[in-house]
Give the backbone structure.
Amino acid sequence: MTRPSSEAEYLARMVPPSVRGVDRRTLLRGALGVGALLGAGGLAACSSGSTGSTGVPTGAVTGTVTVGSNQSDAVPKAAVQSYMDAFAKANPGTTVKINTVDHNSFQENINNYLQGSPDDVFTWFAGYRMQFFAEKGLVGDISDVWKNITGMSDALKKASTAADGKQYFVPITNYPWAVFYRKSLFQEKGYEVPKTLDDLNALGAQMKKDGLAPIAFGDKDGWPAMGTFDQINLRVNGYDFHVSLMAGKESWTDPKVKKVFDTWAGILPLHQADSLGRTWQEAAQSLQQKKSGMYVLGSFLAQQFTKGAEQDDLDFFTFPEIDSTIGTDAIEAPIDGYMMSAKPKNEGGAKKLLQYISQPEAQLLALKADPSVIATNQTADTSGYTALQKKSLEYVKSAKSIAQFMDRDTRPDFASTVMIPAIQSFIKNPKDIDGLLTSIEAQKKSIFGS
Amino acid sequence: MASKRKYKGIDQLSTRDKVVVSLMVIVPTLIVLWLVWLPAIGSVLLSFTNWDGIGPLSGIKSVGLQNYRDIATIYPPFWPAIQHNLIWLAVMFLVATPLGMLFAVLVDRGVAGTRFYQTSIYLPVVLSLALIGFIWQLIYSRDQGLINAITGGTTDWYGDPNVNLWAALVAASWRHAGYIMLLYLAGLKGVDPSLREAAKIDGASESQTFFKVVFPVMRPINIIVLVVTFIESLRAFDLVWVINKGRNGLELISTLVTQNVVGEASRIGFGSALATIMLLISSVLVFIYLRIAMKED
């Protein structure tokens, strides 16, 4: 969930044989200082699966299952280790080999990774990209695993299903995006949770008077502001429009999109100034230090708060209503989980592992490390949940429709090369919305048309 | 391949020597072909396609000049990137390199504590890039950075697109000047001291001695310094990438290529077109440089 900035280092082993040494990536790799091209490949472990080629084995499995993990921060990394160990323990003779890669590098190199020699099982997200990989045949069908999965809601199953009606993904945790605030600050100043846009504007004006930055904001990395766009879009136009806009089916010059940016421009003065040089961590710290009043972000912002009393002081509310005919029943709650590669070395072990990951035991072990997320399996015991987790759970359960996130709901090339610069230029100059939308639409046509 | 009958010299070599010589020619040639020319030509070819990096090379579809048209017309970061690359080149040539040369001259004259200065100026060159990014983040951060803490200002050094290019250039010059200093210092140490003595006897001042005697003598080093500056400016990428991945005022052609090609985006065709443009710009500059260098010889 954290996305630290770092440089690609994982490239070498991810070169697909078809392009090895042929295309310009060789050049770029040199430019990045990664010279170890020749050391590529060969990381996949040997295994001796004792099961047939299809179906989930009912008994114990043996051999080595390799897992590609993007949980590179120390704490989540330890959590992955803990449930993988638990799986190995439950299946004597099985070893799980985890290849951990920096979170951002993993995401950026996923195409090459999947075409090279991917691990049997790997971390990924639900959404457009998952379906895209399924369509391209880069990931394995795990519908048979889903036959044995219990405790997952229909919405989660739907989020794990590709266009062909088969499942390719097993959810482990998710976390909501919302407007976060400190209870103690709201109590101290007598603030009320805003229900509508007008409330939000009034509250913002009051906070300004009190010397606070009403809405903390940091968009140096480019993606956090996508969340604000999504929230406003879900309130102004609703879930269905969000989905079809992200799928490239709507025009960005549509007045509906313009209204999103107009609304945003209206509340932009409430946002912390100079956001383009600030990381989300710095913005979260300003909320923590009570220098700003609210923050539109995912619940992972709790990572910037000390465990215990300080995290308990953190609360959230859904983004205020903008259009009463649309309401507030659509939220954003990205799902993290695992997928299986198209040709796993140890298919039996991989499927067994995926099934294990869908169960409460593994999910609760995952939560131990990162209490800012919640288990996706409904039967998971919530007695150990923090107040924030309990609230997140209720929030996600009560939502009518759940979006992922802009960069998970649309083509990644569109999200990163068009939308990040576009939103940043909107933040710099909120006046020229028409020009901006025309530019986005022209680029969208070129990208989605190809 | 390497041996021709008419060439007398090679006939005098033993068979074993011939094999060795052939290998010494063939192997590097193949490496250069494989690592330099193939990717370069491949890149140019890919720039006429819309390949997304997935699937076999046979599945690639040509789109003609569309990528180039898109870059020039509907891709907003492109023109700023060209501009920033030129500014980068100018600052390196006019500020960072002369500064490095000045440092070298001062250190060479033996100011007190020469070794200390020499080491501290050269230090940035040795530091890893991640560390440099981190150091400057500590200095430039708007809310928590050193500069704003001392001055009490609220300048958004990395976020304000009017400022951040210059902030990045300061950091880049900081590194570049050290590199040039070391190169130049090595050259200065090699200048025959008797030249300076002769100049002194003739009554030349310090600056006259440098500009009229030492500087012309150091022509080979000057050319190396020029080439190094030139290459470093065109390659400018790493520092900007560490700061904000080359967005929002820090666009450079190299970062645009990387954004499009390396990331999850995988707009290989589009990114290749950008890379080809970069190749063309470099070639023009290399051509001009070679003309000048050859002419003077």
